[in-house]
């Protein structure tokens, strides 16, 4: 079996974002990303600051660790990163999970394709708006969305400002048949003052809801908070 660069394994917790928000789940976070979003809340996976935490693990070792942490109390595993779509050999882990009746969710930004995307039960694609500093490769994104037509996927755009909002709309209009989520951006990813953070995140959530409600062009959309930050703030591993 080949090795995977694992940054952290944690849970059980709830999925705080997107199409299966609230789902009880374990998390596997892989190291490495082809992007470097200005506001990335998981930059330790790619900026070198977490390099001592990276463990090269075989898929069956990851499964053993998941069971050690979660016991018999889980039926869902979410794979995130970094960008897990950089890892060609992630199929080994996905297959072990499925052999054990575990549903698999995965978070990626839509910059890379892998054939194992077909095996993911809930795939979240999260293209990055202008505030991230990243440029979307629409040729690649078109290909990914086309390949996955008819499968359980969603698009989730994080929104920080008006320009991001316009970008989100552009994404929804380009792929109108893909379930579409807008998510509040967290612009203070280092504070430990949870009360102040939650207060400001709620204000931003209100701002986003008000904008969508007043917008006749955005109809079939779900507006969500990044739920885990309202509960645990910027804490890692939850
Ligand atoms: C850390 S990323 C890892 C997966 C993949 N690289 C991606 O971006 O989709 C997981 C999710 O967190 C979101 N995210 C990252 N930083 C955020 C922030 N400061 N506020 C809100 N969401 C954030 C990303 O947009 C993505 O949807
Ligand atoms: N609870 C919880 N939900 C999440 N949804 C997406 C996450 C991520 O970092 O990819 C995440 C995370 O780190 N924690
Ligand atoms: S694509 Fe995801 S992991 Fe990579 S920098 Fe952006 S938010 Fe962070
Ligand atoms: Mg996160």
TrEMBL record:
Coiled coil: none annotated. Binds 1 S-adenosyl-L-methionine per subunit. Binds 1 [4Fe-4S] cluster. The cluster is coordinated with 3 cysteines and an exchangeable S-adenosyl-L-methionine. Pathway: Purine metabolism; 7-cyano-7-deazaguanine biosynthesis. Mg(2+) binds at residue 42. Its EC number is 4.3.99.3. S-adenosyl-L-methionine binds at residues 39-41, 82, 126-128. It holds the Pfam family Radical_SAM. Its cofactor is S-adenosyl-L-methionine; [4Fe-4S] cluster; Mg(2+). It catalyses: 6-carboxy-5,6,7,8-tetrahydropterin + H(+) = 7-carboxy-7-carbaguanine + NH4(+). Residues 20-234 form the Radical SAM core domain. Substrate binds at residues 14-16, 29, 80. [4Fe-4S] cluster binds at residues 33, 37, 40. SUPFAM superfamilies: Radical SAM enzymes. InterPro entries: 7-CO-7-deazaguanine_synth-like (IPR024924), Aldolase_TIM (IPR013785), Deazaguanine_synth (IPR017742), rSAM (IPR007197), rSAM_sf (IPR058240). It comes from the Bacteria. It is an enzyme of class 4 (lyase). One of its GO terms (molecular function) is lyase activity. Keywords: 4Fe-4S, Iron, Iron-sulfur, Lyase, Magnesium, Metal-binding, Queuosine biosynthesis, S-adenosyl-L-methionine. Homodimer. Belongs to the radical SAM superfamily. 7-carboxy-7-deazaguanine synthase family. Catalyzes the complex heterocyclic radical-mediated conversion of 6-carboxy-5,6,7,8-tetrahydropterin (CPH4) to 7-carboxy-7-deazaguanine (CDG), a step common to the biosynthetic pathways of all 7-deazapurine-containing compounds. This is 7-carboxy-7-deazaguanine synthase. It comes from Cytobacillus spartinae. The lineage of its organism: Bacteria, Bacillati, Bacillota, Bacilli, Bacillales.
């Amino acid at each position: 079996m080949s090795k995977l660069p694992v940054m952290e394994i944690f849970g059980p917790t709830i999925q705080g974002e997107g199409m299966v928000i609230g789902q009880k789940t374990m998390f596997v976070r892989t190291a490495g990303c082809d992007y470097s979003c200005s506001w990335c809340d998981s930059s330790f996976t790619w900026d070198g600051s977490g390099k001592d935490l990276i463990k090269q693990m075989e898929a069956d070792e990851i499964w053993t660790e998941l069971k050690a942490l979660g016991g018999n109390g889980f039926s869902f595993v979410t794979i995130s990163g970094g960008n897990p779509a950089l890892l060609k050999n992630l199929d080994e882990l996905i297959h072990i999970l499925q052999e054990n009746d575990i549903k698999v969710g995965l978070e990626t930004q839509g910059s890379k394709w892998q054939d194992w995307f077909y095996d993911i039960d809930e795939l979240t694609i999260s293209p990055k708006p202008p505030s991230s500093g990243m440029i979307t490769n629409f040729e690649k994104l078109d290909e990914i969305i086309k390949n996955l037509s008819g499968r359980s996927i969603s698009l989730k755009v994080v929104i920080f400002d008006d320009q991001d909002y316009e970008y989100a709309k552009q994404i929804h209009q380009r792929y109108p048949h893909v379930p579409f989520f807008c998510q509040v951006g967290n612009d203070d990813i280092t504070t430990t003052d949870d009360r102040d953070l939650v207060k400001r995140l709620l204000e931003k959530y209100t701002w986003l809801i008000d904008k969508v409600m007043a917008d006749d062009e955005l109809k079939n959309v779900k507006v969500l908070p990044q739920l885990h930050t309202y509960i645990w703030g910027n804490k890692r591993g939850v």
